[in-house]
Design goal:
With 419 residues, the protein is α+β, with helices and mostly antiparallel strands. The protein is built from 12 helices and 21 strands. The chain has 2 domains: 11-307, Bira Bifunctional Protein, Domain 2 (BirA Bifunctional Protein, domain 2, 2-Layer Sandwich), CATH 3.30.930; 322-418, 3-Layer(aba) Sandwich (Rossmann fold), CATH 3.40.50. The strands form 5 sheets. Strands 9-10-13-11-12 form a 5-stranded mixed barrel. A 5-stranded mixed beta sheet has the order 18-17-19-20-21, with helices on both faces. The chain has a 3-stranded antiparallel beta sheet with strand order 4-6-5. The protein binds one RNA strand of 74 nucleotides through residues 9-19, 36-37, 85, 89-91, 107-108, 110, 139, 141-143, 145, 150, 158, 198-202, 206, 217, 258, 261, 263, 265, 291, 293, 329-332, 360-369, 371, 380, 382, 384, 392.
RNA sequence: CGGGGCGUAGUGUAACGGUAGCAUUCAUGCUUUGGGAGCAUGCGGUCCGAGUUCAAAUCUCGGCGCCCCGACCA
């Protein structure tokens, strides 16, 4: 992508109505646009990053047998009334049509997925089964806050699984937990797992996945030596004590963001919809249901919060909108431009995602933009580098600068990409 | 939803009740070219509605919107 064609531009200052670091940087970098409190549009750079996050999630969900679907987000009120959610879920957006018919906007999809599963999972032979989707969710938050960390419309991956027995559910539950940890690791984050209550709708087991950041909304007690942590709302052990899991670390306290959660929903939803399947003996049985969520846009905000420095965003390679930011430092003679154009084509041929800054701007402005946008590797082509016969390659995260030949650079890049 | 703060150009900021100014962005031209350049010219604004007043960005009331703390948070 040539930067002169990029739909967005950067800006020096963030709007004063944004205090959250993630929203300030993402708006300044042109990743997102604020529509209203708690609602953001995703622009080319932001969407590229969000897509990468979704791809990681999709790969890991597929790997454990999840099947992707896309459910309606406009829901008939009847289904919510059938589970009691219409009156009890206070974040549910409710709306009315011209003909006074009532609808809900999806804030979670148990009410939709359960009747669908009921149609197809009619026999024990159809179980276990798990389906997931990635899409928009709507919650009527009394107060949206923290930029894209807690919005009224946001992106979420939600998966639902159906099982014959508690044992089978437990097996899948722990497989999913491991997949979740892989997802967060691949996204560059060090996530911890907490055991927490099931919330308002389930007394059964649940886990929350926490990433330490001041931008979070939860307080946790965690162990530096393992992934154990506990929400202070329910923590039995206190900070300063020994870790009850690994017995090695001394528990510490921190602010954290909940980037994912998994719940044992039991039989609540199948019961509400009279969903049964036939077991081996032809008897009707009620399946056990689990649900598994990851806030995709919140994850993106968390990554910004965790890695950003005073100059701007620092994306981990795996979720960066581009692999390389190629920067041409313009010159009077113009030979650098030809070299940079050629390099840009070479990268494209090699399948490397490049943002090519060929704009006719001064070096300082281009560098500042590059720092703000946060692409992992910066490659500079100028008369100066051409004279040396090398390219200047700067690492956004470490600031380290290397002078490489074109061949060396392509090798470095393909090595990074294959990870 | 309770409490607090704030609404002036795309963005950031000034203006005692009396000519809405500055910076930046944007447009045009010239000069510049390795860390957000310089000069010149130009476009662009008081959230909405009432009220007080000779006169309202400024004071009063109402509405709407935004932010923060709390509560809430599948």
């Amino acid at each position: 992508m040539r930067q002169s064609h990029l739909f967005t531009k950067t800006r020096k200052e963030a709007p004063t109505d944004e205090v959250a670091k993630n929203a300030q940087l993402l708006i300044r970098g042109g990743f997102i646009h604020k529509e209203m409190a708690g609602v953001y549009s995703y622009l080319p750079l932001g969407l590229r990053t969000l897509n990468k996050i979704e791809t990681i999630i999709r790969e890991e969900m597929d790997a454990i047998g999840g099947q992707e679907i896309k459910m309606a987000t406009l829901h008939p009120s009847e289904k919510w009334k059938q589970t009691g959610g219409w009156d009890n879920v206070d974040v549910l957006f409710k709306l009315k049509s011209r003909t006074e018919k009532e609808y809900a906007l999806g804030q979670s999809e148990e009410e939709i997925v359960t009747p669908i599963a009921q149609e197809y999972a009619t026999s024990y032979k159809d179980l276990p089964v798990s389906v997931y989707q990635i899409g928009q969710k709507y919650r009527d938050e009394l107060r949206a806050k923290s930029g894209i960390m807690r919005g009224r419309e946001f992106g979420m991956k939600d998966m639902y699984s159906f099982h014959e027995s508690q044992e089978d559910f437990d097996r899948f539950f722990s497989i999913t937990k491991e997949a979740y940890l892989r997802i967060f690791r691949r996204a560059g984050l060090d996530a911890k797992v907490t055991e927490a209550s099931g919330g308002s709708f389930s007394e059964k087991l649940s886990y929350e996945f926490m990433v330490i950041t001041d931008a979070g909304e939860d307080d946790i007690v965690y162990c530096p030596s393992c992934i154990h942590c506990a929400n202070t709302e329910v923590a039995k052990a206190e900070a300063g004590g020994e870790c009850p899991k690994c017995k090695k670390g001394t528990l510490a306290k921190a602010r954290a963001a909940e980037v994912g959660n998994v719940f044992d929903l039991g039989v609540k939803y199948p019961k509400a919809f009279s969903f049964t399947y036939k077991d081996k003996d032809g008897k009707e049985q009620t399946p056990i249901v689990g649900c598994y969520g990851i806030g995709t846009t919140r994850l993106m905000g968390t990554i910004v919060e965790v890695f950003a420095d005073e100059k701007g965003i620092v994306w981990p390679e795996s979720v960066a909108p581009f692999n390389i930011h190629l920067i041409l430092i313009s010159s009077v003679e113009g030979t650098a431009k030809a070299a940079a154009d050629a390099l840009y084509e070479k990268f494209r041929m090699a399948g490397v995602e490049v943002l090519y800054d060929e704009r006719d701007l001064r070096a300082g402005e281009k560098f500042a933009d590059a720092d703000l946008i946060g692409i992992p590797l910066r490659v500079i082509v100028s008369e100066k580098t051409l004279k040396e016969g090398k390219l200047e390659v700067k690492n956004r995260k470490t600031g380290e600068v290397q002078m490489l030949t074109e061949t060396e650079l392509l090798k470095t890049v393909s090595a990074t990409l294959s990870v």
